[in-house]
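Record type: monomer structure entry
Structure origin: computed from sequence
Chain ID: A
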Amino acid sequence: MSVVCLTDFEAHARERLSKSTWDYIGGGAGEGFTRDDNIAAFKKIRLRPRYLKDVSQVDTRTTIQGEEISAPICIAPTGFHCLAWPDGETSTARAAQAAGICYITSTYASCTLEDIVAAAPRGFRWFQLYVQPDRQLNKQLVQRVESLGFRALVITVDVPKLGNRRHDIRNQLNLKTNLLLKDLRSPQERNSVPYLQMSPIDSSFCWEDLSWFRTITQLPIILKGILTKEDAELAVKHNVQGIIVSNHGGRQLDDVPASVDALPEVVAAVKGKLEVYLDGGVRTGNDVLKALALGAKCVFLGRPVLWGLACKGEHGVGEVLNILKDEFHTSMALTGCRSVAEISQDLIQFSRL
């Protein structure tokens, strides 16, 4: 099959996956407005290229939390990769390691953390946590990922309750009885009976609770799901190390701003005191460039990684990452940027349309 862009992978993945799995991966909350707007919002931004610059050498490398990555294109946390490919997250981890980028592993991974690490022992990984009501379970999980070499803790903040996902309701999708969540079990349970319930998320978790996490881990703390200057300012006040501007791929609260539309407000609010990243709607190298021009340190890919996984496993994820990296390299060269540091807001303008 001929695939030259991320949307080609989308079309092929749709053919390969069952309807319920496709709807789970692709669906949004409510009417799906925010899910679609994440993509459309990038098209309202125009590029202002600068020419007659020496772009014979273009360097896509950058750093996040002090660690070098080959390009500012990393993998967002998504759950249940075994729905897309039998080897699940182990394939994703190997592709990320080969690409030299960061992979944020989800609380709801369908492979054990140990298996993911064993599959890609040199990989650069962060861990995404859905805070559980059982504090001891949080502590065990966080200390486990730290001992396994994960390098940051990404706490998702936009799921005090699951969003209204109509497709999943129509399909009566019941992941908790179909998938084994090996990492949300006590050590005793892991060694005995299967754990077949998706553990509830703590809807009482609030800003003051972040200090408790600091007592149990030395890992940098990143908050995923911030969309406003008010919450960005609180993130700075509570001394977190990073923010992922995200609306959960439009899967939580519909009618919130597209991630890229919320990005400038958050970047302005933190005043350079912490790193800001973005996920949601990135489909081209131009999108990556636009996000960086607006102040993101890097972008994280969600659905496109699952499309690649569904098509070709590890090699499909690698192709998705390589296509986007190559497009980004071209976007840099054609706007006159020789390094990521040269990408600035001067390169973009907002369309009047």
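Annotation 1: The chain has one domain: 6-185+194-350.
Annotation 2: The first helix runs from residue 6 to 16.
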